[in-house]
Amino acid sequence: MPKTVAPWEIKSEILVKAEDKTDPHYGHKPEERPVDEYVRYGVINLDKPAGPTSHEVAAWVKRILKLQGVGHGGTLEA
Amino acid sequence: MTGVLPVTLEEATKVVQALLYSGKEYVCVMKLHADAAEENVKRVLAEFEDLIYQRPPLRASVKRQLRTRRIYYLNFLEMDGRNVLFQVGCEGGTYIRKLCFDVGEVLGCGAHMQELRRTRAGPFTENDSVTLHDVAYSFMQWEEKKDEKTLRGFIRPMESALGLIPKAVIRDSAVDAVCHGASLTAPGVLSVNSGIRQGSMIAVMTLKGEAVALARAVASTDEIMDMEHGIVGKAERVLMPRGTYPKCWKSGEA
User: Fold this and answer.
1) A27: CB partners within 8 A, 6+ apart
2) d(CA B54, CA B92)
3) Which residues in B lie closer than 8 A to residue A12 (C-beta atoms)?
4) Cβ B50–A3 below 8 Å, yes or no?
5) Where would a tag sit more exposed on chain A, N or C end, judged by fewer CB atoms within 10 A?
6) From CA B54, how far away is CA B93, in angstroms rounded?
7) Which residues of B fall within a CB distance of 8 Å from A27?
8) Beta-carbon neighbour count of residue B204 at 10 Å?
9) Taking CA atoms, what residue in B is nearest to A55?
10) Does residue B57 sit at the A interface (CB-CB below 8 Å)?
11) Which of B2, B4, B10, B120 to mutate to test the interface with A (most CBs of A within 10 A)?
12) Chain B residue with Cα closest to A2
């Protein structure tokens, strides 16, 4: 039985069904979002220190950046 | 426990669902409760690759039912006395602490997790992670100098969290309907990743690379490529605000 492959080891191709253009008047490429929008739709790849919980660390990021809300992608607890 | 912790800011928190079920990688120090031969340790570790059973611990805030988890790889790195260093790639929601306990049981001597560091969470790895100090310092620099590059340096767009999720790129004309929760239909699809199966989570994207929604595929890649009409996916989490792209549909249509 073939071993399960990790998602980051899977090679995937893009198959094109049709072509079309995108209107530059609407939306932005993610990297080109105006700065406030860029932050509000942003993610930080944080290296969590030992000690505080994941929730506490996320709360610190919220306080440092003066935001209304943050989340985190998977608890890293003791 | 240290290591990769993706922190989603404000609206980006909607992508957390994509991250929780994505794979993780750790480096772990397991402490054996008695001496054991290296070849036995390696043999037992190998037994835990692929599918394992786990019941979440008492302190976890999830339903404590027995469930299966996939271990993608379990690599013995080195052993020093009773300390065993290994690298493990696994499905989200795998308890490494329980894994160490179970390895100890099978070995017969008992073991516990001594130290854990997460080296990967979905598409995010240690290679480009930043510390809390970096965040505080960079933000202070931004407040003083107002150079946007500082903020854009340590904050990634939320789309970066979707790096491992198969994508469906759609026409501008289909975007606003999906933002309103409409199902994605075949004529709206421009391109699609290979490997999508019915039930897969997919990310619906614009031609500019913006995330529109997380959706559940109701057709496979091949079917999506062949279909001329019909539903290919159902929006589960809308990520883009309504009205970003113009409304190109009448009420009652998708």
Assistant:
1) B175, B206, B208, B210, B240, B244, B245
2) 12
3) 166, 193-195
4) yes
5) N
6) 10
7) 175, 206, 208, 210, 240, 244-245
8) 27
9) B7
10) no
11) B10
12) B50
What count of residues does chain A have? Answer: 78
Q: Does the beta carbon of B233 lie under 8 angstroms from any beta carbon of chain A?
A: no
Residue by residue, DSSP assigns B10-44 as GGGGGGHHHHHTS-EEEEEEEEESS---HHHHHHH
Residue with tokens 């928190």: B13
What does the longest C-alpha to C-alpha distance in chain A come to? 51
Looking at this predicted complex, what is its ipTM? 0.93
In this complex, the residue of B50, B194, B207 whose CB is nearest that of residue A15 is B194
Locate the chain A residue with the closest alpha carbon to B161: A43
Q: Does A69 contact B at CB distance below 8 Å? A: yes
Token duo for residue A61: 């990021």
Q: In tens digits, what is the pLDDT along chain B, a chain of 254 residues?
A: 999 999 999 999 999 989 887 899 999 999 999 999 999 999 999 999 988 888 777 777 677 788 888 999 999 999 999 999 999 999 988 999 999 999 999 999 999 999 999 999 999 999 999 999 999 999 999 999 999 999 999 999 999 999 999 999 999 999 999 999 999 999 999 999 999 999 999 999 999 999 999 999 999 999 999 999 999 999 999 999 999 999 876 555 44
Residue B38, burial from CB neighbour count under 10 angstroms (0-12, 13-18, 19+): exposed
